[in-house]
Amino acid sequence: MDELTLRRSLRQWIVNRSKKRVNPDELRDDTPLVEQGILSSLDVTAFVLYIESLRGEEVDPDDLEPEVFENVETIWAKFFAPKAA
């Protein structure tokens, strides 16, 4: 899956899961997810499972710092961006 498709999938999951009404056209990669109440701590737990399904591997618990879930950009950078050699 390419970067654009992954980012779109992450945003769509957030829109579908959020208890707060979120306009999909207004959810940007830099929209604060927890700060704006778009995702709760319970949502983040389920989101980790979704991230694992997209990655095809488990997420290291050491990578689950709160700031990682600030927005789609920080999630992409932590879990999907190619690592520099």
Brief write-up:
This protein is mainly alpha-helical and 85 residues long.
Give a structural overview.
With 85 residues, this protein is an all-alpha fold. It has one domain: Non-ribosomal Peptide Synthetase Peptidyl Carrier Protein, Chain A (Orthogonal Bundle). The protein is 45% helix and 0% strand. It contains three helices and no strands. It has helices at 3-17, 41-55, 72-79. The radius of gyration is 12 Å and the shape is globular. The mean pLDDT is 93.
**Order of secondary-structure elements:** HHH
Distance between the termini: 21 Å
Mean pLDDT comes to: 93
Note the total helix count. 3
Q: Label the CATH architecture.
A: Orthogonal Bundle
How many β strands by DSSP?
Answer: 0
Taking Cα atoms only, what radius of gyration do you get, to the nearest Å?
A: 12 Å
List keywords for this structure.
85 residues, mainly alpha, Non-ribosomal Peptide Synthetase Peptidyl Carrier Protein, Chain A, 0% strand
Reconstruct the topology from this structure.
Blueprint: H1 3-17, H2 41-55, H3 72-79
Helix pairs in contact: 1-2
